[in-house]
Specification:
This protein has 818 residues and is of the alpha/beta class. It has 25 helices and 22 strands.
Length: 818
Amino acid sequence: MIELTVEQPIDTSPFADESGTQVNVNQTSPTYHPLSADLLAKMNAYWRAANYLSVGQIYLYDNPLLREPLKLSHVKPLVVGHWGTTPGQNFIYVHLNRVIKKYDLDMFYIAGPGHGGPAIVGNVYLEGTWSEIYPNVTQDEAGLKKLFTQFSFPGGISSHVAPTTPGSIHEGGELGYSLSHAFGAAFDNPGLIVACVVGDGEAETGPLATAWQSNKLLNPITDGAVLPILHLNGFKISNPTVLARIEHDELEQFFRGCGWTPYFVEGDDPEKMHPLMAATLEKAIEHIRQIQQNARNKNDNSRPRWPMIVLRSPKGWTGPKVVDGLQNEGTFRSHQVPLLVDADHPDHVPLLEEWMKSYKAEELFDKSGRLIPELADLAPKGDRRMGANPHANGGILLRDLRMPDFHLHAVNVPSPGAVDAQDTQVLGNFLRDVAKLNEDQHNFRVFGPDETVSNLLSAVFEVTNRQWDAREIKNDEFLAPSGRVHDSMLSEHQCEGWLEGYLLTGRHGLFNSYEAFIRIVDSMFSQHAKWLKVTLELPWRRKIASLNYLLASHVWQQDHNGFTHQDPGFLDHVINKKADIVRCYLPPDANCLLSVFDHCLRSRHYVNVVVAGKHALPQWLTMDAAVVHCTEGIGIWQWASNDQHSEPDVVMACCGDTPTLEILAAVSILHEHLPGLKIRVINVVDLMKLQPCSEHPHGLSETDFDSLFTKDKHIIFGFHGYPWLIHRLTYNRTNRNIHVRGYKEEGTITTPFDMRVQNDLDRFHLVQDVVDRLPDLGSKGAYLKQMVKDKLIEHKHYIDKHGQDMPEIRNWKWPGKA
């Protein structure tokens, strides 16, 4: 523990000059020079102003400066908001402002506690950024009225930090991701310090608890710094918090065990807390500067023990101490609205007025309602203001990736299905070149939970390493203090959070994962998609690089993984989000995968989900054909169809690498045994093509859909995921004769083909589907149906005896022209 003590000043008046006081951080740390009484008094006044604005946002929509006696009519009809964390965050913000000015820091603020919106909005307003972004909210009494009214009010802003809040990259509604976002922002930003306030309730979430370990992946030479500030105010909505109730030594040992150097600021008396916080913050900043100077001057990238701060202050600090005979300040009762003021509680109006007047707004704002100049001067200027920091509007800093020519990685396909390849392995070579080309730009990283090698992307390690700043031992591979790959921590939450923070601060990247386990970050994806949706509507927010997912080791590859590894439902989850934001791609082969991923890495402000296999499968299209097909997103594969000169009898459609294989195998059987049957084969790369163009910008018009799928012919559709997703996307199309085969929660450890058999996606079941829906096939259809039924029994006996699929399955090739 770093012992930090403040001697009592000779003059004990409030905020007296502490020129004789020293705050010592170990024997070797530089001496802290206390702040003057005048500066401390101004900082306390600034804090009062922020607290006043915070209370006003929660309660008022008129009489913002209490220039007349407060009436119930001045109070919002529905008072909602969260007070408990707010005064502590205001306290932190004013102190961060001071060190930003003193050290000329490039710093911004991440508000982890769930509903600290009043604090951040109020501070961004006080520093002037809010009025610059929203000119109608002026720096005067009229602007204060608008500032107060908009909070938690129809058509206004939320009670937590949101995309509408300048200086924010972190949505404060759902808890757990603040610290991983902070580290993502710090990667490749050597001049940046991210001040991340972690709520003690938030600290109980799994993602946040794991995020403390991110300090093992921060390079002091090439990366910035994260300064976590754990705000211990003791309570959640109606319960105590765990970290606030354990002993001081245990808390200290916990953080030291996580590799941090904890600094403690604890108390409730502002006279003591201001100088203590000022001293502690200076020591933390000096500590960071010493770490970075040592690392950069000596090229020493060994892992340091970064500083962090534990701030223990009362819940609802400076708020009503007792309400209706019950203690409020310092209890869970101050978490949300500490004082009910409405038609049922008119007697609380004077109490609210007394509370607000305790901040002495008449000393803080001039006659026009503007913060007085000597207080306004405490805030940093220009881009140094945390609300105006360019990193918090990452599109401003975004530079295009240098992209290699993906054609150079093309698989040579002399004819459809003539060769096999492992799609993600081919993609790995392309990503290697992306990493190499952008090596000196420091703006591209690959994230994934220990799966880069498993998903066959290991070519990237030819040009970079995994970033790893912890201890290394013999036989470790690809570990280094600096690298472009983050897959050395087995946490989907951290990979997602790091990547989001990286993207939100103006860089590029991708997240590769096993398909089934991407579901772990369902909610994180949702929050990011919502962020993109809202920021798209804010003209001052610049577009950022897309969030790109590569889902490999997918549901149809279960040679040794069991039932737990089978879940293609992320696609269902993704398409629930706004059509302006989400894109889903299922390339059928490696050349299509290259074309798709080149597009995704160049794109802006989307969430791109790409599903691709890593096992060897037939390759269908030349690169030139793949580019055309992927650009269109959907199309008839004429080389597999035989209906060019007549209407088709049946449409065979497919989406995904494995369904494409089985559909084409079924088509080859039908061509052989029913040569007169007219079959149209359609492949879908862009899943959203199936939606109407009125629902999604990629969707097909009714005319184009009918032209492809016909208005009335039976459609046998092989799909990668859950069948009902296709029905959902096409439910209002003219042709309702769509029969979908996909994953239906069957199968465990078995052969690749048997996995398809158990879910009725295999070629033999697909042939049966055609025969069953075309009764005019007569006896030819009946004999073919009997044959494929026999094959299914033969298959089962074979795998039970030999443990692998039949040779005719393993060695199947597309027979040639239809």
